[in-house]
Amino acid sequence: MNLFEAVYELFLPAACASCKEAPAAGSGLCEACEAGLPDAAVHLAVLSDTGAPPTVVAGAYEGPLAEALNEYKERGRRQLAGVLAGLLARPLEIVGAELPGAVLVPIPPTRAARRERGFDHVAHLCAGLGEVRRCLRARPRPDSVGLSRAQRREAARSSLDVVPRRVAALAASSRPVILVDDIVTTGATLSAAAAVLRRAGMSVPAAVAIAAAE
Ligand SMILES: [Zn+2]
């Protein structure tokens, strides 16, 4: 734990990240909400963007899982990283078993989101779960509010780019890539990520995420 985190923990909100009422345990959730997280089963996400690789998730984006993800992501409550990394580990274990030697490539935040949050929230969760290669970077993108579905898809398609020097070494190694994201909806971002990595010579057979939203 660095100094910033140590100071932050002193001022941690004492309430559960989900119900916002009961006192939180060390995980950031109260016992009842923690019991309301998805069980150990994993699910194949139903994605409308057919360019996305098959994507396995820990659960639906609802209930305590959705609340915990929001508090972690939008309010920077890093205390929740343990619970969320635990959930991410489940689909990753299933997918990783099929893809020996795979590396994890997290979907990067936009530069603006990273600045606001102060950290790369998906990469932070991946840290203890495998070999992480941060070889994607976000390109500046317009605010998606008010965009049509087709415009959103187009925005997602041009939202990511590779980090050339990192991607070259990875492509030469022939190791498969497992994309990692927090929430998937249509799969447009995963599709865009897979497309730029494949164009750079990589194999992207699968993706994992914590939650799937409708
Ligand atoms: Zn609670």
Q: Could you list the spans in which at least 5 consecutive residues all have pLDDT below 50?
A: none
Q: Which cofactors or ions or other ligands sit in this model? A: zinc ion
The total count of strands amounts to 7
Largest sheet: 5 strands, mixed
Q: The CATH topology is what?
A: Rossmann fold
H and E string:
HHEEHHEHHEHEHEHE
Average of pLDDT: 90
Structural class: alpha/beta
Radius of gyration: 17 Å
Provide keyphrases for this structure.
two-stranded antiparallel sheet, 214 residues, binds zinc ion, alpha/beta, single chain, globular, 9 helices, Rossmann fold
Descriptive overview:
Helices cover about 40% and strands about 15% of the residues. It is of the alpha/beta class and about 210 residues long. It has a single domain, classed as Rossmann fold (3-Layer(aba) Sandwich), CATH 3.40.50. The protein has a five-stranded mixed beta sheet with strand order 1-2-7-6-3. Strands 4-5 form a two-stranded antiparallel sheet. Strand 6, helix 9 and strand 7 form a beta-alpha-beta unit. Helix 7 packs parallel to helix 9. The protein is globular, with a radius of gyration of 17 Å. The termini are far apart. The mean pLDDT is about 90. The site of zinc ion (ZN) has 8 residues, from helix 2. Belongs to the ComF/GntX family. InterPro entries: ComF/GntX_DNA_util-trans (IPR051910), PRTase-like (IPR029057), PRTase_dom (IPR000836). This is ComF family protein.
